[in-house]
Amino acid sequence: MHTVGTNVSDKRVAQGDATRAALIRASRELFGEKGFAETSTDEIATHAGVTKGALYHHFNGKEDLFRAVFEQVQLEVSDKAVAEFLRPDSWEAVLDGCALWVDAHLDPAVRRIVLQDARAVLAWDDVRAIENRFGAVALRGALRKAMQAGALPRQPLRPMALILMGALSEGCLYIAEADGPETARAEVGTLIAQMLSGFRMPPSPPDAQPGGQSDPST
After folding, report:
1. CA 181 to CA 123: how far, in whole Å?
2. Spatial distance between the Cα atoms of 45 and 135, rounded to a whole number of angstroms
3. How high is the pLDDT of residue 199?
4. Cβ-Cβ contacts under 8 Å for 85 (sequence gap 6 or more)
């Protein structure tokens, strides 16, 4: 039996995971407050309570660490939207989930990391891939649910989700750059609701008879 060796190995893995989590947590605080350019690896290591060598053991450098932070922020925003997307009323779920996605980017730290620094630090393809993985995939699930409930017509899901996610991202950027964020948020909210309403299925007449053509498949 190798119980002692296994326990030591498990402890090292746990310690490594804890160190990595501490580095991401510290980096998120510093990147969100000061920005990528104004944050040094020395500050991150000190803030995380680890050595600089530990930082480079887990990450290739500050850019690699920023990517991990960016992914975490996108995951957190996505998780909040998904909580809305899962509500019973599929149409309200899409509307409220999209509104929540925009509102999440009003947080100054989220705005700095996602809307300002990400596009300057990471390659455009990387930013788009991460945004789509955490945003468009979640939105696609909500759209599928709305189509299955008859709130939206059956349409190709992937391009529809990507187009809507692009609109949400541009709306967030518009708000971030606006002189009056509250007015800009109201404008974006109205336009997104109108855009989504343009996709909505008209309500069936109360005297409609069952039958007719079936919905096309997704």
Report:
1. 28
2. 30
3. 84
4. 93, 94, 97, 138, 139, 141, 142, 145
pLDDT of residue 191: 94
- The most distant pair of C-alpha atoms in the chain lies apart, rounded to whole Å, by 74
- Residue whose C-alpha is closest to residue 59's, from 14, 26, 29, 12: 26
Distance CA 114, CA 172 (A): 10
Query: Is residue 205 predicted with pLDDT exceeding 60?
Result: no
CB 71: neighbour CB atoms within 10 A? 15
The answer to whether 133 touches 165, Cβ cutoff 8 Å, is no
Residue with tokens 């709130």: 151
Does pTM surpass 0.85?
A: no
pLDDT, tens only, 35-80? 999 999 999 999 999 999 999 999 999 999 999 999 999 999 998 8
The residue behind tokens 């300057």 is: 120
Q: b/e string for 107-132 if b means 16 or more Cβ within 10 A?
A: eeebbbbbbebbeebbeeeebbebbb
Give yes or no for residue 116 having a pLDDT over 50: yes
CA–CA gap between residue 214 and residue 97 (Å, rounded): 28
- Give pLDDT, residue 215: 45
Contacts within 8 Å (CB) and 24+ apart, 202-209? none
